[in-house]
Structures are given as structure tokens and as C-alpha cells.
Amino acid sequence: MIEFSDVLQAANLLKDRVIRTPLVYSPTFSRLANAEVYLKLESLQMGGSFKVRGATYKLQSNLEKIHSGVIAASVGNHAQGVALAACAAGVPATIIMPVWASISKQEATRAYGAEVRLMGKSLVESIEIGRRMAQETNRIFIHPYDDEEVIAGQGTVGLEILEDLPDADLIIVPVGGGGLIAGIALAAKAIRPEARVVGVQAASCPSARKALELGRPAEVQAEERGSIADAIMVTQVGEAPFPLLQKLVDDIVLVDEDQIASAVLKLLERKRILAEGAAAAPLAALLGGSLQVAEGSRVVLVVSGGNVDSLLLERIIAAGLFREGRLMHFSVSLVDSPGSLACLLGLLADQEANVVHIHHARNESGVAINYTRVDLELETRGFEHIKGIERAMEGAGYRFMRR
């Protein structure tokens, strides 16, 4: 099993090769959680995530074996980390990505100099394809999480946290395959044994929690709808990190999609931090009540990456706004006559609601011949504001339906 000395060795090798990311205090989140909350901003790391740490350490530790190049499999972040590490080492990299991997992450990986091949319907399939290809071509395969050298590299995140905040009480880490939390827990428990390390998973794919319940890694069936936290949608934790999870991780908690979306929005609005869904999961757990935090305790949230697809970000923000009562959707029936829409819009203006989108629906099934249906999206201040708008519309005799 990997030891703390391996993490220290990784830190020495990675010095000046990766960014020492900042640990930032958040007054806003501290007030909301009634604790001292700090953000470890791996979203500012090279390649936009922590993954470059493990990839660089793996490559630099095996320079004599990688002349012909390396192969990796990834949904996105590990791909970019390996591409960057390979470029720095001056060797070619081939990345196997699932066929559904986002175009933006494909292009970012290519921009770092790697060859991208879309093969496999899942990350597990892509990993198996990559392993076979590495064996057939006598190249090293760099696993995204099930590799002790990769885990040691990721553990340097934990070292930096405890160097910057020696009295940290709780470190909350997103969990996919388990490599990041295994490395962080190993470092944190060696330096400050009383510190708690808690993992967070999307409720739609609770593989690490299931593994701890069963006492062994086991594949879970992820929900078909997927998750906005795609980077932690790993259906089975790795064999290498699992013993460290068993021994050192205090708990694994789950968060739902609405909580993750709300956390992404809060990080963006309150701290101007762009975090992908997985990276926002620790904040979702902290503010969503998934875990108990002692008043005044020092809490570190590992913001693991910021590589979010632009189109997905738009949907995540919209979902977060709805959860916070900042957007309101409704349909209303209006008499199809001049001035009826103007009256409705005047009422909404009196309620200080901002119209974001509006759509007129005529000649549709279910709409009476002398009526029109109007679909509206409003920007609102919160749920009390929405209630006030509804009361005003009911008082004016409007027939409407929230959506």
C-alpha cells in the first residue's frame, strides 16, 4: 500500500512542475455554514484541475520507460493532465475518451498536443481499450485513479492544505474513482490525525459509498440521466485507492443534482469561481445539510476543477437559479385582444419582475379559439417574491400554471 513517504517524494518531484494553488478564505460561505470555510482552488491548476499532479508524477517517475509515449483514458480532466505532462516530458500521448465526451474537453486535450481517440461507451470501456492498446504497443498506461503513483501525486493537494492551514478540522473532497481523496486522506491523517476527511459523491452514482458498505469495490448502476458532475460519475472505485478509503476516510456523503447546480451558481456569483459540477459537490454537501459541521470549525472544500462545457454551464446556472427561486416559469391564458398582454406585463413590472423570455402560443391544442397562451420566464429575487407575483396575478383574475 502507498505510504506517506510516497506523497512527500511526489511533492519534491512536482515542485516547480505544477502550480501550488491558493487556499482562499470565504467570508460568505463561512457565514452560511457557521464555520471557517476555505477553498482549495485546484480549478486554477495547470489544465484546469488537480489531475496534472498525478499524471506528471507518474511520467516523471518513469522517464526511462516512456520514450515511445504514453496512453491514458479519461472523460476530460485526466486527459488534459496527461497531455500537459507528456508535452512537458517531450513524449507523445494518446488519450482514449468515451464517444460521448464533451467536444470542448476533446479540443482542449488536442490543444495540449495529445492524440484523441473516441472509443468506448463508458469510462470503464475506454480504460480497458487503453490498457489493451498500451500492452500491444509496449507503452505505459496512465490510469486516472487506480495507480499508486497517480494517488501519490494527487496527495500533494493534502500536503499543501495542511501547510497553509495546519489546524484544519475537516477536508471535504469530491469522489469519483477515489484517487484524489485517497491521496489527500493519506497526507492529512499523517500530519493531523484528528482532521476529518469526508468524500462527496453524486447521488446518481454512489460507487464509493457502496464499496465502503460492502467492504470491497463493486460496480454500481449509474442513473441513465447522468449527472452534471460528470467527472465523478465513476461506477466502481479503484482497487488501489480503496484500502486508503477504508482506513482513512471518515465518511462518504451524497448530494443531488439540484444541490450541485446551486453550489456551482453560488461559487460563480459569490466568489467569481468557475467550478465544474464535481468541484462544486463539497460546497453542495456543506450547505445542503449532507454532513454535520461543528460551529466555528475550520473547513476546507477542495474545488477540484473548473473545466465545464459552456453549454452545460448555461444549463447548470439555470437549474441553480430555479432552485434558489431566482427564475420563475409559468403559462397564462389571455383573451386574444389588443392590450391584454400589455396589461399582464404592466402587472409584472409593478411587481418588479424582469421578463427573461416570452412566447405566444396560438392555434394550439387545448387553447380556446379566442384565447392565447403566453409562456413566460421571469427573473425573481426569491421564493417570497414569486409568491407575491402569484398573489397579484390571482387577484387580477389571471389563470396561470407554474412550470
Explain this structure.
It contains 16 helices and 14 strands. The chain has 403 residues and is an alpha/beta fold. The protein folds into 3 domains: 4-42 and 161-321, Rossmann fold (3-Layer(aba) Sandwich); 51-148, Rossmann fold (3-Layer(aba) Sandwich), CATH 3.40.50; 326-402, 2-Layer Sandwich (Alpha-Beta Plaits). It has a 6-stranded mixed sheet, with helices on both faces. The protein has a 4-stranded parallel sheet with strand order 5-4-3-6, with helices on both faces. It has a 4-stranded antiparallel sheet with strand order 12-13-11-14. Helix 5 links the parallel strand 4 and strand 5. Helix 12 (257-271) crosses helix 13 (277-288). The mean pLDDT is 92.
Main beta sheet strand tally, sense and closure: 6 strands, mixed
Helix fraction bin = 40-55%
Radius of gyration: 24 Å
Assembly state of the chains shown: single chain
Average pLDDT taken over every residue: 92
Indicate the low-confidence ranges by residue numbers: none
Query: What is the end-to-end distance?
Result: 53 Å
CATH architecture assignment of the largest domain: 3-Layer(aba) Sandwich
Query: Which sequence of SSEs, written as H and E, runs from N to C?
Result: HEHEHEHEHEHEHHEHEHHEHHEHEHEEHE
What number of structural domains do the residues give? 3
Name the strands of the widest sheet in spatial order: 1-2-10-7-8-9
- CATH top level class name of the largest domain: Alpha Beta
